[in-house]
Amino acid sequence: MSGVRDQEGGSDPGRVEPEYEVIGGVIDDHPSSTARKADSGRPRAAGTIKMTAGEAWRYTRKSFTSWWFWLACALGIALAWGMAAALIVWGEANGWFETEVAGAVYLLMAAFLALAAAMLGAAWGFRHTKGSIPVLLLSGAMRGVALAATGCGALLLVGLSFGGPMALAGAAVVVIVLEVALFGLIGAGSRRCFAKAAPGAALAAVLVAFLCIGNVVVTLLLIPATAGTVQVSVPVNVERDDSGRVIAYECVGSLRPVEVAHTDRIAWLATSNPVLLLGSVGGELAATDNPVGWMLSGLQWAADGPAREVQCLGGESSAGLAPSIPVALTGLALQGLLAALVLVAGRWQAARRAEASSGPG
To answer: Where do the H-state alpha helices sit in the chain?
Structure first.
C-alpha cells in the first residue's frame, strides 16, 4: 500500500502503521505503471533511436575508413559515365537520334548511377550483415549518402559540360540513397540464408540480376500478350501541354473497335528496375521529344495503359480518367517486399543453424 509499510514485528501481522504523516493528500512512493510509461516512453524511444543510429554509424565508419569502399564508389561512377557515353556513341552510329540530344550523356549517366547504386548496395550489404534490420537499413542509407554525394558531384560536372536539367541530380540523390539501402538489405539477407558465402553470393546475384535486367526483359516479352480490342469514340477539343502531351479532351460520336496494348497489366513487373525507377522520379524533368527522355518516362506511360495514347476509350472523356499513380511508389514497395522476404528467410535459416549447432538440451 502506498505511503505505509508492513509492521515486521507484533502479534498482528495484518496491522499497519503510517511511516509518516500525510498532509494534503496521499503521497505515492511507487508511481503507477501508466505514469512510468508516460514518463519514460519518450526518453526510451529517443534512447533506442540514438542507440540504433550509433550502432549503424559504427558499422558504416568501417566502410568510410576503407579505401576499398571509395574505390568501389569511384568505379561505379566511372562505369555509369562510360556506359552512358558508349550508349550515346552507339546510338548515334546506328541512327537512333535524328538530331543531337542535348544532355543525353547527363541523362543516361543519372540512370546508370541508380543501377550502380543497386549493385554496390547489394555487395556492401552482403559484406556487412551484423545488426538489426533498422541498423542494416540505416547503415545502408549512410553508405548511399556517401555514394550520392560523390556520384552526383560528378553528375553535375557532366551536366555543366554537356547540358541537361540540373534538378535531375536531386532526384538521383534520393534514388541512390534508397537503392543502396534496399539492395543492401537484399545482400545481407542473401548472406544469412547460407552458412557459406558462395551460395549466398549466387542468390544475391540472381536477385540483383532480375531486378536490374530480368524484370525489363520479362516485361518486354509479355507485351505482345497484352494486345486486345477496345471501343473508342472521336476526341474533340483536345488540349496539349508544352511538350505536346494530351492533357484534356472530350468525346463525341459512336464507338468503333481499335486494337491496343494493355501495358498497364504488366508494367508493374518493371517498376522495381533502378534505371526505370529513376526515370519515373525524374522523368518529368527531361524533355520527352527524344529517345532518351522517352525512355526515362516510358514506364509511367506504360503503367497508365492505352489511355495515355488512345483517347476516348469506351467513349469516356479525360475528366473521367483516374489520375496517374507514380510508378516509383510501386517499385520501391516491390523492392522493400523482396528485401523483407529475403531477410526473414535469412534470419530463419540462421536460427536453424544456431539451434542445430547447439545440439539437444
So the answer is: 33-64, 67-93, 104-127, 133-162, 167-192, 197-209, 215-222, 274-282, 291-304, 327-358
Report whether 248 contacts 236 (CB < 8 A): no
Contacts 24+ apart (CB under 8 A), 26-31: 26/2, 27/2, 27/3, 28/2, 28/3, 29/2, 29/3, 30/2
Contact yes or no for 211/338 (Cβ under 8 A): yes
* Cβ-contact 2, 25 below 8 angstroms: no
Contact at 8 Å (CB) between 83 and 154? no
Q: What percent of the chain has pLDDT over 90?
A: 36
Distance in angstroms (rounded) separating the CA atoms of residues 183 and 171: 18
Which residue type is seen at 186? I
Rounded-to-10 torsion of CA 120, 122, 126, 129: 110
3-state secondary structure of 6: strand
**Given this model, what pLDDT does residue 11 score?**
44
Distance CA 74, CA 348 (A): 36
Quote the CA–CA distance of 162 and 104 in Å, as a whole number. 8
Half-sphere exposure of 223 (CA within 13 A, CB side): 16
- State the pTM of this model: 0.80
Q: What is the DSSP string of 23-38?
A: -SS---SS--HHHHHH
